[in-house]
Structures are given as structure tokens and as C-alpha cells.
Amino acid sequence: MGTRFKVNGRSVDVNADEAMPLLWVIRDRLGLTGTKFGCGIAQCGACTVHMNGAAVRSCVVPLAAAAGANVKTIEALSPDRSHPVQKAWESCAVPQCGYCQSGMVMAVAALLESNPDPSREEVDASITNICRCGTYQRIRDAIQVAVKNARHG
Ligand code: FES
Ligand code: FES
User: Fold this and answer.
1) Gene3D superfamilies given for it (predicted)?
2) What CATH number was assigned to the domain covering residues 3-75?
3) For 2, which of 24, 75, 116, 119 is 20 to 30 Å away at the CA?
């Protein structure tokens, strides 16, 4: 028997070294490739997923730590890209190359879940993901649009 947990609502039982980073389990064992590898040392945020509702950098979460957890990846943030953050990202045309963006979206979605109307300082303090294309201004704008969308439905 391997390590059991839920991914996107589905129960999985993964036979792998318990020290394997959750990122590799998600990508290589479960085939969910929307979550990206950037640095592998918890610096860039490209690998951000939700674990029990909180944003985590899956490159530094060992498989053992996911036992019994509920993990959500970008593939299941919404069934049809209708999450307020996804809609805001689309309307503000945030991505450039796109590589960092699933991690950004997951980080912002978790922030708005815990703090539906963050101040600019709170956004800057909690969204520390790195974008090599420098889309930070559009990210800040899109967060404001997402806050408004979520408020007005
Ligand atoms: S790949 Fe995980 S933080 Fe960069
Ligand atoms: S859009 Fe290219 S790294 Fe962020």
C-alpha cells in the first residue's frame, strides 16, 4: 500500500518513495502537468497547489506530508475556467509566456479564499511568486478585478 490522499476530489494511492516531492507525484505519477517546476527550492512558486485549502510549494512538500490531505491543482480550480481569478486573468490578459501563471493563479485563489479583499500591501506580502516575464503590474490589476468579480458575482 502506498500513500493515500485526494487530488482534485479523487482518491489516489501512490506507491513511491515518501520523500518524493509532491510536485513530481502530481506531474509524473498522476499526469497533471499544469503545475510547473521552476526552481525546486521553494523560491519561485511555479509549483503552487492547494493542500487542505492553503497554497503550498509542492516542490518542497514530501509525498509523506500529503498523506490524508486534500490536494487541488490548477486543473480543478473550476470545471470551466469560471473561477473569479481565472476570469480576471483572462480579461486582463495577464500571462506572457505563461510558465509561472498556474502557480500565480493558485496562490492568488488561496489568498482570496482567506482574505477576500486584500490591501495592496497584503497582496505584495503574500504573493511572492516569481514571473520572469515581469507581468507583476497586470497581476496586481487582475487581483483587483478578481476581488470585484467575486463581490458582485
Ligand atoms: S519549483 Fe517550487 S517554488 Fe520553484
Ligand atoms: S508569464 Fe512568463 S514567467 Fe510569468
Assistant:
1) 3.10.20.30, [2Fe-2S]-binding domain
2) 3.10.20.30
3) 75
